[in-house]
Amino acid sequence: MAAKTKPPAPGSPPGPGSKPTRLLLKRLILAALDALAVNAVVVAAIYIRLDGDAVGPALASYWRVAGFYTVGTLAIFYVSGLYHAVWRYAGAHDAVALLFGTMGSAIIFGFVTVWPYRLDGFPRSVVAISWTLNVLAVAAVRSAGHLLRTTIRLRTTIRFNDMAPEPGESRAVVVGAGPFLGHLTQSLIARAELKIRPVVIVDIEGKSFGSRIQGVPVGGAMDDLERLALRHRATMIIVAPSPWLPDRAGLVARAAAVAARHGLTFRVVPTLRESLDAEPGAAASVHAPGAAPAAPHFDPRPADPTDLLNREPAEIDAEAAQAYLKGARVMVTGASGSIGSEICRQVAAFQPELLILLANEENGLYELELELRRGLPGQPMTVVVADVRDRAKLARVFQDTRPTVVFHAAAHKHVPLMELAPDEAVKTNILGTKNVAELAVACRVDRLVFISTDKAVNPTSVMGASKRVAEHVTRSLHGNPGGTKLCAVRFGNVLGSKGSVVPIFEDQLAHGRAVTITHPEMTRFFMTIPEAARLVIQAGAMTKGGELFALDMGEPVKITDLARNLARLKGLDPDRDLRFEYIGVRPGEKLYEEVLTGNEVRTATKHSRVFVAKPDAVDRARLARDLRELERLAAAIEPGLIVARLREMVPGYRPAAIHTAPVVRTEVRPESAVAGLQGRRRLRVVKDA
Fold first, then answer.
1. Which residues pair with 266 in a beta bridge?
2. CA-CA-CA-CA dihedral for 474, 480, 485, 487, to nearest 10
3. Residue 293 CA to chain centroid, in angstroms?
4. In Å, how far are 142, 226, 266, 414, 575 from 504, measured between CA atoms?
5. pTM of this prediction?
6. How far is it, in rounded angstroms, from Cα 171 to Cα 187?
7. 78 vs 658: CA distance, rounded Å
C-alpha cells in the first residue's frame, strides 16, 4: 500500500511543487526574458539609428552600463506591477502599468545611465527609440505564452474538427447571439481543463452565417441546430441564453429538445448575475459596495427551471441597500421559508449589526442557521423559534433584540389549504401581521417591509383576501408618532419555492406519472427566489412610509407551456412522453393573476422593476372593529362567517365556495362491508350543510 502523503506542517516552507514556488519560478523566468528583451531592444535601436562603422563604438559604450540599466529596469518593472498581473486577462490597468514601467526604464536609461556617463558616440535619440520598442517587446514577452496556447487549440479545432474527441472531451455545438458568442467560444478554447471542443456555432440572430468566430465555423441559425449537431458528430449542445433575447425560454427548450432526441449532453451558460447568485456562502446573492466577491465562473451548467423565464434578472441599488442595512439590527419573520431565507442570505452581505432569524418551523430554521454560520462565520445572528400569532412571545423578542429593520415574510400561502382553514389564514396572515406591525411601531423600528402577493388583487381565495387585509393593517399604521416607515410589496409566484408547481412537475416527470394541471389556460407570473428577495430589499430602501409597492413580473407564463418546457429540460419529448391530466381549477384559484386593481394607479420609481400603487384609503376605526370581529370568529372557528366578514372588508373579493366547518366523525364499518377491512376504523370528513 502506498504511504499517505502528509500535509506540510504549519509555518513550514513550501515544497518544490507548491503554488508559491511555481509562481516565483514563473516570475524569475519572466524577469530573465525581460532582461534579454530590454537589452535586445537597445541593440536594435542603435542599429536603427546608426549605420556602418558607427555602430561598434556605440555598442561598446552601451555594454559599459548594460548591467546597471538591466537591474534598474527590472526593479522598475516590479514596482509597476508587471510581474503580478495575469496577462491572459489583461486590461486597461495592465496597459497603464506597462506604459509606466517602460517609461521608468527609459528615464533610467537616459537620465541615470547615458548622460551621467557621457558615453562617446552614443546618440541620445536611441533612448526614445528604445522606449517605443520596449513597449512592444515587453508586451510580446507577456503575450507569447497565451498566444501560443491559443494557437495550438485553434489549430486543433480548425484542422481536426472531424476527428473523434479525446478521452473525456466533448464536441460541442455553441448556440447564442451577439458579442457573447465570441467570448464564450474563446473561453472554451482557452480552458483546456473543461475538455469541451467547440466544433460549430449556431447564431440565432443569423448575422454571422458563413464566417468563423475564434476559428470555429458559424454553420447556421436555430432551425439548423439539429442538422449541424448530427453533421459535426456533436456530443454536447451549449446554449448561451442572453437575458435580452425575446424568447429565452423557447430557445432553451428547443435546444434541450434536440439534445434529448439524440442523447446529447445539454448545458446552459449562466449570466453574470446567475453566477453571483450561485456562489457558495451566505453573501452569494448580493455584494455590497466595497465588498470583494469571488470571481464568478461561467462554466456551462445543467439547465434548471429558472432558464424557462423570459425575463432579465433585476439588479439592486447596492448603495441604497447598504445605506439602511449596514450596521442595522435586521429581523426576518418566516426566515425558514423560501423568500425569508433568501432575504436573510442577501441581507447578511450588507454586514448588519445583528441578523434575527424568526420562524416557527424549527428544521428549516436550524438548516438556515448552519448555512449562514458556515458561509459568514463572523456575522452576528440570533435564532428565535416563535409564532407571529403569539403576541406575548413576539413582544419579548422585540424587547430583547431591538430590531431597527423588519422584513415580515411569515404567512400561510397555500391557496386550497387556506380555503379549508379560513381561521388559520386570519390568525397568521392578518392577526400575525397586526402583531408584528404594531410591535414594530411600539419599539420605534425604523422601517418594516411586509411581503404581500398578487393574489390580493380582486381575490377569489381566503389567502388572497387575508393578504389584502394585511396590506390595510400596515398602511393604517402609517404616520405613527414614532416615525416607523411601513410599506407592503406585492408580487407573484416564485419559481422553485416551497409549494410551487415546479417541484410537483419534477416529481411527476421523474416517476413517469401524468402531469396534473388545473386548466389548459391557467397562467401565472413567475420570478426567481433571488430576484424576488432583491426587489423586496430594494423596496425597503425606497420606502418613505405608507407605500404599496408592486414588482414588474414580466410576461405571464402558461402553466402548460411551463410543464412542456420543463419536460424538455429533463430530456423528454412532451408530445411523445407526457400525459396531461386537467383536474379542474381548485377552490380559490384564478385562471389569471393581476398585480393591480382597477382603482390602483401605477407610478414609476427610480428602479425600473419596482412601482408604487396608489391604494384606496383605509378607515382606521372601521378596520379596528373588523379586526376584533375577525379575531373572535377565528377563535370560534366560524369559516362561513369569516368569509362573509372578509367580503365586507375587501372590495372585489369573490369567494370560490361556501365555507363550512368540517366535522370529523369516527366510523366503525361492519364486518360485511368490505372484505379485508374487518374491525378497522376509518375517518370520514362530513361537511354539514
1. 237
2. 20
3. 13
4. 54, 31, 23, 14, 19
5. 0.65
6. 15
7. 80
